[in-house]
Amino acid sequence: MINNKSIIICTYNEVGNISIAVQDIKKNIKNSEIILVDDNSTDGTINEINNTKNNNDIKIILRKKTRGLGSAFLRGLIESKEDYIGWIDTNMTYLTTKFSEMEKLLNEGQDIVILSRYVDGGKDERPILRSLTSKYLNLFCKILFRSKVKDFTSGMFLMKRNILNEVSVLGYGHGDFFIEFLYNVERKGFKIYELPYVQKKDLVPIKSKSAPNIIKFIHYGIKYIIRTVTSMFRGN
After folding, report:
1. Are 151 and 118 in contact (CB under 8 A)?
2. In this predicted model, what pLDDT tens digit does every residue of 125-164 receive, in sequence order?
3. CATH number of the domain enclosing 63
4. Is 217 helix (H, G, I), strand (E, B) or coil?
5. DSSP code of 164?
6. How many separate domains does the chain show?
7. In the chain, which end has fewer C-beta atoms inside a 10 angstrom radius, N or C?
8. CA-CA distances (angstroms) from residue 77 to 170, 176, 186?
9. pLDDT tens, position by position, 201-218
């Protein structure tokens, strides 16, 4: 059974790969609407989309005064209309080939399927600083939450809309918002399935989603840890 899907992508200055990302989604995720939330890109990202043929099925949301992955994702949720909702990073849409299997798992009874680097068959090929930091952050989350989930931070998923009837998305912050969301999804008893994937090295630098220097890298790390701890004391 093929279900209609809302696929959210969040952009900021990604002219180098946005066309490929949209092509991959259209090719590999059938029966899907694309919701693109852009944080006022200055490099021609939106012009690149507008110049693409057959872009009528792309819903573009332009945010001129607000930035942030968490709030962009929440805006995408608000605009979504289909029963299955997904998100994928625009520089990793080679993983759109995984979505047919993710959809099958939802049809078979899972509530949310997340792509995971830390289950059998998964791997992180990024530079050692980023890969080790991610690995140990996820281990910290798993121990703190007493969770079965191994990858809280890949962020790429496909889920059933009815999860949103019970779990709110607190749309602020960077990828830390997804840690809190998954924690509450698991806490409410929804079925989570982790599908392995290999995270390759970034082919195109993405300013909005990667730390451009060590100071910002540390800054994000501290924020992730604080949000992980405080999420345990916040009702959701």
Report:
1. yes
2. 999 988 998 999 999 999 999 999 999 999 999 999 999 9
3. 3.90.550.10
4. helix
5. G
6. 1
7. N
8. 12, 17, 19
9. 865 444 444 444 567 667
